[in-house]
Amino acid sequence: MKTFLAPLALCMALHAGSAAAQQDSTPPMSPQAVAEMTPLADAFFRSLQSGDSSKAFRELFAGTLMEGKQDELQTLITQTNVYLDAYGTLTSWSMIRSDCLSPTYCRAIFQVENKNGPMFYTLTVHRRAGVWMTSSIFLTDRGQAFFDLPN
């Protein structure tokens, strides 16, 4: 009997921790922060739309530590091109969710419509010297996880 209770207790503890984490939501980006960050995202998506992934990532990470990591940037470009080959040309994009750990460190999730279906881009951004800069990017074609994020 004891062997069955330990996994059950662990499972319940993990579920309770997950539920508590979902209740502790972070605030969305302020309208001012969204307005200030939007040009960065729009330039990125416009470059992708025009077929220039290299320019898109170069500009997205300009002035950051990632700018000097050419191997990682090339991997991002290559992987993005694989997605774009499958999903087709970008037709539109919109921010569907944002949240912030602080007023200067936020996450913005974009739904990107492509010729053959949607993709989702998560940009983690930080504000330094009055300018929003990209810390990281996550790209997926699976939107299900975004329904599980707290509001």
What is the number of helices?
5
Strand content: 25-35%
Quickly name the level 1 CATH class. Answer: Alpha Beta
Rg, nearest Å: 18 Å
Give the CATH topology: Nuclear Transport Factor 2, Chain: A
Reading side by side through the largest sheet, how are the strands ordered? Answer: 1-2-3-4
CATH architecture group name: Roll
| Model regions low in confidence, pLDDT < 50 over at least 5 residues | 1-22
Number of strands: 4
| Largest sheet data | 4 strands, antiparallel
- Give the overall average pLDDT: 84
Shape: globular
Distance between the termini: 40 Å
Q: What is the SS-derived class? A: alpha+beta
- Helices and strands, in order, run as HHHHEEEEH
The count of domains is 1
Helix content: 40-55%
Keywords: Signal
Signal peptide: 1-21
Organism: Brevundimonas lenta
Protein name: DUF4019 domain-containing protein
